[in-house]
Write a structure and sequence with these properties.
The chain is mostly beta strands.
Length: 563
């Protein structure tokens, strides 16, 4: 029996004077369509042109609903209230579009009638410049349906088909600036090292790369820059060369410290790096010291994107960075014989000792060359029997046999004590000895002793009474590998020691005695002659004769008186 008139058999149940009629409710289907006009967002609308599109709709979305019976009945026109909500850019924290109300969501209620299509338009606005125009804007629609009571049905109301989907999602794409086919990008990479193509490990703590990326063709999606760098570098930060709205986000991929290479990935202006765009930025890396001493390190930067069609002629670049290692070495005189003296013509020997200390003040061990230069011969005479020895043999230095070289006229140098002549390679034949220290350990030192017996025979040929015996030690190393970072490297890599030599002439005592005796005789003769000239000897003679006359007269008188 069809009580409800929907051409379906109803069920009647009765007992004890009560009857219950079980009727089927009219079942409705709702078809939903959303159309965009225009069907894609115009290029001009999202290319940051506020003069034309500021707060103005670029188009609209039209939502249409049509309600139909699932099964025919004789109830006539059925009514139902539909409530639906619209949401733009669902799932995004920062949305790209809003409705005219400047909200990205709307909730609408409407009365639907069977057999009649109901539509409504909703203008859409892009409130600001859109950077992410790769992905279309999503429009989500959700609805619910509540049927009204059918007139004359004694409380019967239609219901929505339970198998009908009540959620729909529509996409509004952006117009791509790619012509008729897919976008083809052309990414060009150029970079250089801000400090030149040389880095000094141990002095330079930061390495800065200036990177330029340019898209010379059509839009590039999900543009990436991949840095392949040495493992002793660790990424520090990215900074723009000039104020810019470019967004560069980098992540240092997990790198095993034992691996030789590190990897850094940077996203550039995601999701779209526009055509004719150019970005310049600095990438900074910390430099860590390493026991390995490599001559070069190489960097490779490669640009990639999500485009299926790409021009890759200049999308990768590799540059080499030359490496040097910071050292700090110095030498100085620490012990020496300050003064010796000789007597000219003697065969005396005097022991002279010059001691030099060679220090490695830096954090890295290195091989060094120690050159010792001392005057060795004057004319045909040896100056001294010099030897060079190392006081700390743990550094394993090896000294090559000495080499003599001709005297070279040196530039005049100031004399330390006045009137002394420098006894160096300017007036003597010098001896050179080269000592090689295989590895002078960091923060350690080695002492070289130069000593020998100085011979007076060679010194007398110079016909000088005051001499300065000069020795010199100079340090060298592989300058293609190491750089001395001390403030005055040239000064501390050389040292000299000076010993003062005085030569006294021998005294001839026999000559002095003979000369004194002969001089005394001459002086006595002169004194006698002077006294004689003054009449000293004549006055004495006259006085004697007077005495004799007086005595004679006295004797004669006595005789006359007795006769």
């Amino acid at each position: 029996m069809d009580v409800s008139g929907d051409y379906l058999t109803d069920l009647v149940v009765g007992a004890l004077g009560t009857v219950t009629v079980l009727r089927s409710r009219p079942v409705l289907n709702v078809s939903v369509t959303v159309l965009f006009n225009p069907w894609q967002i115009p290029f001009e609308a999202y290319q940051c042109q506020p003069a034309k599109w500021s707060n103005q709709p670029f188009g609209n979305a039209t939502a249409c609903f049509q309600m139909r019976r699932l099964v025919s009945d004789n109830w006539g026109v059925l009514k139902a209230n539909i409530t639906y909500s619209l949401l733009l850019d669902a799932g995004r924290h920062k949305w790209r579009a809003v409705f005219k109300t400047l909200s990205r969501s709307l909730t609408i209620s409407q009365l639907l009638l069977t057999g009649k299509k109901m539509c409504q338009q909703f203008p859409i606005i892009l409130p600001s410049c859109v950077k992410d125009y790769l992905e279309p804007i999503d429009l989500s629609l959700n609805f619910s349906l509540a049927g009204e009571v059918i007139t004359g049905s004694k409380g019967l109301s239609p219901i929505l088909n339970k198998y009908k989907e009540t959620s729909e999602k529509y996409k509004l794409p952006f117009q791509k600036d790619c012509g008729m086919d897919e976008c083809v990008d052309y990414l060009r990479v150029v970079f250089n090292f801000s400090g030149g193509d040389l880095a000094v490990i141990g002095r330079d703590t930061v390495l800065i790369l200036t990177v330029v990326l340019e898209n010379a063709h059509e839009d590039s999606s999900h543009t990436q820059l991949n840095f392949l760098h040495p493992s002793q570098l660790s990424f520090r930060k990215i900074s723009n060369v000039q104020p810019s709205s470019d967004q560069i986000v980098c992540s240092d991929l997990l790198t095993d410290q034992l691996m030789e290479r590190g990897n850094l990935s940077c996203a550039v202006n995601h999701p779209v790096f526009r055509k004719a765009s150019r970005v310049t930025f600095n990438a900074e890396f910390d430099i860590s010291s390493s026991e390995r001493e490599e001559e070069i390190m190489n960097f490779t930067i490669t640009a990639s994107s999500g485009n299926s069609l790409r021009i890759t002629n200049e999308s990768s670049l590799t540059r080499n960075l030359s490496l040097r290692y910071a050292v700090n070495i110095a030498t100085s005189g620490i012990e020496y014989t300050r003064h010796v003296n000789f007597t000219a013509g003697s065969k005396d020997l005097r022991l002279v000792k010059h001691s030099y200390q060679v220090e490695n003040l830096g954090p890295r061990s290195l091989p060094i060359h120690v050159k010792v230069v001392v005057p060795a011969r004057i004319g045909t005479h040896s100056l001294w029997n010099v030897t060079v020895s190392e006081r700390h043999p743990g550094n394993h230095s090896v000294c090559q046999p000495s080499v003599h070289r001709l005297a070279v006229v040196q530039s005049e140098s100031p004399k330390l004590p006045q009137d002394y002549v420098r006894l160096d390679c300017g007036i003597a034949l010098c001896m050179e000895m080269l000592c090689e220290v295989a590895a002078l350990e960091k923060h350690s030192s080695v002492i070289f002793d130069i000593q020998g017996e100085l011979m007076s025979a060679a010194l007398t040929e110079l016909n000088q009474n005051k001499l300065l015996l000069v020795s010199k030690v100079s340090l060298s190393y592989d300058e293609d590998k190491y750089v001395d970072i001390s403030e005055d490297a040239a000064h501390y890599r050389e040292a000299t020691i000076i010993t003062q030599v005085d030569i006294f002439k021998a005294v001839n005592r026999l000559g002095m005695i003979l000369g004194g005796t002969f001089g005394g005789l001459i002086l006595l003769i002169i004194i006698i002659i002077v006294f004689y000239k003054l009449g000293f000897f004549k006055r004495n003679g006259k006085a004697g004769e007077g005495d004799r006359v007086e005595m004679t007269a006295s004797n004669g008188g006595e005789g006359s008186s007795t006769g």
